[in-house]
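Lab notes, practical 5.
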Amino acid sequence: MTVLLLRAGRLAVDLAPHAGGSIARFSVDGVDVLRPMAAADIDAGRGNEAAAYPLVPFSNRIANGRLDFEGEVFRLARNWPGVCHPMHGDGWSHAWTVAHADGQVAEIVYEHERAGAQGGWPFRYRARQRYCLEADRLVVAMAFENLEDRPVPAGLGLHPFFVREADTELFCRCQAVWRTDAEVLPVERIPVPAAWDFGTSRRVNEVALDNCFDGWDGKAVVVWPRRRLRLDLEASEPFRHLVIYVPPAQAYFCVEPVSHASGDVGTLPLGPGAVRTGEIVFRLSDL
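Output from the prediction step:
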C-alpha cells in the first residue's frame, strides 16, 4: 500500500490514501502531535484507526439511520463496529485516488456512487482533500461536489486525534453545546456550562466529553507545556461546529472541525453540481 510522505522543515506528514484518505502520522522534530497509525492498520486500510480521517458526507451519528431531507426519508445502514447508528460518513472506510503528489503537496479524491439498495449514502458525490505542508504548518483543503441533478445534504469535517499528556491544554470559544443521551445522540442544546468551557486554556484531563459544540469562532489552541509546543488550529467556513471528544483513560483526545451539528446534515443542502469547500490549518510553534 502506498503511503505518501510530505516533508517541510521540522514537520513530517504521512498520508494513507487507501486507508480512508487519512493522515497516518503527523510529527514535529520526529515527535508525534497526532496519535500515529499502526502499520497493521495502514496495511489493512482501517481509516478509523488513523491519526486523522475525513468526515464526508456527514459527521457523527444519524439516529437509527433515518435521514430526513427536503420532505423525503432515506434509510442508512449501520457502518461502524459496535455502534447502532450510521456514523462519520463514507470517506474513512474507502480508498481514495491520488490525483497529485510531490514532497510537500498531495491531492486525493474519493468518488461515491449511489448505494441506496444496500442502505448506504443515496447520493453521488466527489470529495477532495488537498494537503500542503509548509515549514510551520499543515493546510488541509476539503471539497464536496454534488454529482446529482438535485440538491443533496452535504457535510464536511476532519477527525484528528491529538496526543494527550497529563499537562496538555486546550483553548477554544463556543457559544453552545449539545447534551447527549447514553448512545451519544443529541438531546438538548444548552449554553456551555463552566465545567465544559475552554474559553480559558485548561487541561484536557479535567473533563470527559463526547459532545458537539456550536457557535465556534473557527480557532482553537492545543498546548503541550512539557514539550514547550503549541498548535494553533484555524478553520474557515463552513466549519463552525466543533466536536470535542475526551475519552477516559486514553492517550488521545479529539477536536473536530465540522460543518453541522451531530445528526443535522439534513439541514445543510447543496445544489446540483455545486461545491462546498473549507480549509483547516494546523500551525506549530515553540512556547
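Observations recorded by the TA: The longest strand covers residues 275-286. The longest helix spans residues 39-44.
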